[in-house]
């Protein structure tokens, strides 16, 4: 809780089921991002439905009713299934990755969706779709989720029919159209790592341009603001699950912009919680608005420092 009594959710990001031990020790309110692609990486064959089901079920059961947000496969670009695979496209970050790959490989996606849905009978699982850029992709995905549900119904296999489906906002086009996405989804999650990469045209894996990778760029703050506003208008929760959420120097700014759900590596939860406990939203909001209306990065830094005093 902030000093003025506003409840804030601090969730954890995980990559493999064993990470849950650290999540529980961190005191997180749940899992805000389970990156399932790690189950698929560094191997030749994709895991079958049973292996995936066991992994998702183990996490759901270990979290004991707390939310577990499982992201569907975000393979491609910096996360290849087989590191030896020769890259055939010149620009993998703009290529067939994440939800695009899943829609191009519906059988592989069907297996993951069935595994996720089956696991939803054992805990509080939500589905999160990565890299959405258009409503067409979202609608195709929702159709495939329905198809996976139907296949389980036919086999009389249990699942949570009301399972929530959320979308990652990590492409500028999606942030600009956040309201349209919020209408057809249960929640949104801002992936600032990719949002920064795509908005500023900076390869997040290229050290030679890492000095330009700036979360405080006015354009990034505007895109976050648009997304938060869309969630507020439509009554849908919005979280940030990129690195920005775990940077305690940015906690007050994000709170002042209206963020109430943060998801981060479990090792950052304590320092972010410390900031939340010492923050008074009434005082933060005016400075956050000032930062938002500044289109000059040089002015943003001193304002942020003042906010963090
Ligand atoms: C992001 O892009 O901010 C995100 C959380 O996803 P990933 O880092 O796995 O691409
Ligand atoms: Mg991403």
TrEMBL record:
NCBIfam families on file: PTS_I_fam (TIGR01417)
Protein name, as recorded: PEP-protein phosphotransferase of PTS system (Enzyme I)
This enzyme's EC code(s): 2.7.3.9
Pfam families associated with the record: PEP-utilizers_C
Span of domain PEP-utilising enzyme C-terminal: 2-280
Keywords on record: Transferase
Function summary: General (non sugar-specific) component of the phosphoenolpyruvate-dependent sugar phosphotransferase system (sugar PTS). This major carbohydrate active-transport system catalyzes the phosphorylation of incoming sugar substrates concomitantly with their translocation across the cell membrane. Enzyme I transfers the phosphoryl group from phosphoenolpyruvate (PEP) to the phosphoryl carrier protein (HPr).
Enzyme kind, highest EC tier: transferase
InterPro entries on file: PEP-utilizing_PTS_enzyme (IPR050499), PEP_util_C (IPR000121), PEP_util_CS (IPR023151), PTS_EI-like (IPR006318), Pyrv/PenolPyrv_kinase-like_dom (IPR015813), Pyrv_kinase-like_dom_sf (IPR040442)
Entry GO MF terms: phosphoenolpyruvate-protein phosphotransferase activity
Superkingdom field: Bacteria
PANTHER family: PHOSPHOENOLPYRUVATE-PROTEIN PHOSPHOTRANSFERASE
Lineage per the UniProt record: Bacteria, Pseudomonadati, Pseudomonadota, Betaproteobacteria, Nitrosomonadales
Coiled-coil region(s): none
UniProt KW Transferase keyword: yes
Organism annotation: Candidatus Methylopumilus turicensis
